[in-house]
Amino acid sequence: MSLIEARGLTKSFGGDVVLQGVNIAIDPSEIVTIVGPNGSGKSTLLRMLAGVLKPDGGEISHAAGLTIGYVPQKLELEASLPMTVRRFLNVPRRVSEAAAERALERVGVKALKGRSLEGLSGGQMQRVLLARALIVEPDVLMLDEPTQGLDQPGQAEFYRLIEDLRSELGCAVMMVSHELHVVMSASDRVICLNGHICCEGTPEIVRNAPEYRRLFGSGTQGALALYRHEHDHVHDENCGHNHAHDHEDAH
Ligand SMILES: Nc1ncnc2c1ncn2[C@@H]1O[C@H](COP(=O)(O)OP(=O)(O)OP(=O)(O)O)[C@@H](O)[C@H]1O
C-alpha cells in the first residue's frame, strides 16, 4: 500500500492555475524526485502532499499513522532572534536531549549543537534542517531543494547522505531539485512536472522522454551526458549503492 496517494489535485493562486489533474503516489522506501522548470508547481505539490497546504480540488490520503519529516526550501528566521542549533531542534516541539543528539549525529553535525544558527554555512544549515526533520522518525522525508546554494561536491555529499538515511531508516524520500544530474542518479523514480505531470518513471525513462527533453534538453547537455555516462555500465551484483554517481570519468 502507498504511504501517500493523491488523485486529481488542482491548485490555483489568484486565478492562475498552478497545478491541474495531478495523480501521484509514494511507496515505502522509494526515493522520488520532482523536477520541473521554475514556477511549475513543484513546491506547491510537495507542500500539499506534506499537508501544509490545502488543494483546491482532488484528494490526498495518508497511510494510517504516517509521519512526515519536512525540510522547507529555506528557513524564515527572525533575524532578531538568535538561536542555537539545540534550541532550534525544539521548534515546533520540545525534544529530549537524547533524541536531539541522535538526530544531529545521524547527519554528521553533532559538534554544531551549541552553535548559533546565524553562523552556520549553507551545507551545515541544510544538515541541521534535515536533523530536525528526522526527529519524528519519518516514514516519508520531504525535501524542497535541499542543496540550493551548495557547491557540486556539497550537493553530491548531501544526496549520498539522503541515500544512506533511506537505507538506514527505511523511509521514503520525496524531493524537489534542480540539480538534475546528481539527483536523478540518486532517485528510484523521477516525476517531471509542469503544471501537470509531463512524464514519470525511472531516471532512464524520464531522461529519454520527449516531454522532458523539451523542457530540459538544451539547457543541460553536460549534466545529461554526465548522467548518461554513469549509467552506461552494468552494476556489479556485489556493488552496493554507496558509491558516488556524480564524478565525471574520462572514458
Ligand atoms: N502562496 C502563494 N501565493 C501566490 N502564488 C503562489 C503561492 N505559492 C506559489 N505561488 C505561485 O505558484 C506558482 C508555482 O510555484 P511553486 O513554488 O510551486 O513553483 P516551483 O516549481 O517550486 O518553482 P521554483 O523552481 O522556482 O522553486 C508560481 O507562479 C508561484 O508564484
TrEMBL record:
Q: Which InterPro entries match?
A: AAA+_ATPase, ABC_transporter-like_ATP-bd, ABC_transporter-like_CS, Metal_Ion_Import_ABC, P-loop_NTPase
Q: Does the UniProt entry include the keyword Translocase?
A: yes
Identify the species of origin.
Lentibacter algarum
Q: What is this protein called?
A: Zinc transport system ATP-binding protein
Any idea which UniProt keywords this protein has? Answer: ATP-binding, Cell membrane, Ion transport, Membrane, Nucleotide-binding, Translocase, Transport, Zinc, Zinc transport
User: A GO term (biological process) for this protein?
Assistant: zinc ion transport
Tell me a Gene Ontology molecular-function term this record carries.
ATP hydrolysis activity
Domain (ABC transporter): give its ranges.
4-219
One Pfam family this sequence matches: ABC_tran
